[in-house]
Amino acid sequence: MSNCVFCDIVAGKAPGRIVYENELSMVVLDIHPYAEGHCLAIPKRHVQWWHELTAEENASLFAAAQVVAKRMMDKLNPEFVCMYARGRRIPHTHIFLIPTQSGDVLDRFFNALENFQESPERLAKLKTPESLDNALHILKEK
Q1: In sequence order, which residues have a C-beta less than 8 Å from that of residue 75 and are 6 or more positions away?
Q2: Which residue range(s) make up the domain with 94?
Q3: SS3 sequence, 4-62?
Q4: What integer pLDDT is reported at residue 102 of this predicted model?
Q5: Is 107 within the bounds of a domain?
Q6: Alpha carbons 52 and 14: distance in angstroms, whole number
Q7: Domain with 33 in it: what CATH number?
Q8: In tens digits, what is the pLDDT along the chain, a chain of 142 residues?
């Protein structure tokens, strides 16, 4: 596809720091890393969304991601490797592989996201008459 940086990397028309590749996939260092060793696993064929890959391409992409994630765990010693798939801003499937430590920016982001996901129940509890009366009592105290 024209004007796709990942297609250009696969074709050798653009620079890419290739960490690993197999017949159908490639893993490159991200040029805008969230952490040391942050990589992107990409299919060699231009496909916007990972669920549009063939079964063979999907297996290849996730196998490549696993190889590099294991290397990250071994060589960089993170607490875990965060993985998520995108294809929106750059419309070519890419899986983020980010070595992550507890409390770093990505861990805090996902914790906040999980807390938001769980918050309706907690927020609903704040609306009960008992909770409102308790807040009133606390704030009115001198």
Answers
A1: 37
A2: 5-101
A3: CHHHHHHHCCCCCCEEEECCCEEEEECCCCCCCCCEEEEECCCCCCHHHCCHHHHHHHH
A4: 87
A5: no
A6: 25
A7: 3.30.428.10
A8: 568 999 999 999 999 999 999 999 999 999 999 899 999 999 999 999 989 999 999 999 999 999 999 999 999 999 999 998 877 788 999 999 999 988 888 888 888 877 776 677 777 787 889 988 888 988 887 7
Tokens 């890393």 found at: 33
**What tokens were used for 127?**
């609306």
Question: Residue 97: inside a domain, yes or no?
Answer: yes
Domain membership of residue 136 (yes or no) is no
Structure-token pair, residue 99:
């070595």
* Residue 59 located in a structural domain: yes
**In 54-93, where does DSSP find H-type helix?**
55-76
- Among residues 91, 87, 43, 35, the alpha carbon closest in space to that of 63 is found at 43
Number of domain units in the chain: 1
Contact 100, 56 (CB under 8 A): no
What does the block give as tokens for 27?
């893993």
